[in-house]
Here is the input.
Amino acid sequence: MSSKRFKKLSEKTSIISANVIEKLIPTIKKNCTTKFDESIDLSLQINHKQKKGEVNLRTIVNMPSGTGKKIKVAVVCEESKHNEAKDAGADVVGGDDLIEKIKDGNLNFDKLISVPSMMIKLSKLGKILGPKGLMPNPKLGSVTNNLKKSITDAKSGQVEIKNDKDGNIGLSLGKKSFSDDMLIKNFNAVFEILEKEKGNNTIKGNLIKNAFLTSTMGVSYKIKLPKNI
Here is the structure.
């Protein structure tokens, strides 16, 4: 059963014509009538004309305005790099001891970074880290010897873009408290990455069929895409 608050929001938004992101953000913010700082969320649908399994996006975008979320970063590295990781802002640092804690199910972090030399040990924990999306990946910049850059990126607003088996992608553009310009900059950064990924995957036709914007406790509006991507 919908709450009284939700019933006051616009109904049947699916029949409203798509609009550009600049005009939708103020409307979405007006729908943020809860007492907490709601997330402004982007949902994308990959074009159904693509063959099942043909498109498997998994990349990262550095949000220029950040995400508004505090990210707890763990680093697995040799003891000689522990101070480097801590100085760069890592919240949890360790080597074999941290791997053992992970093996026991202690996943008290949001992002896991590893130096290449430790990946042979971490790779054995795929059943634990994989389902949580925490397994370090070279393509995503989380397997690296440049710990300072990876930690800084993770904490300053790096977001993973990944489609599910049905071709859906979901991510947050930021918070209601962000200025409209901050949210637009993050939106544009996402589509710059998607355009690049489309070229890398040699996809024919449009990659994105539909795009929607909503808030945590709000209703969804269709976005008029900035270009045929």
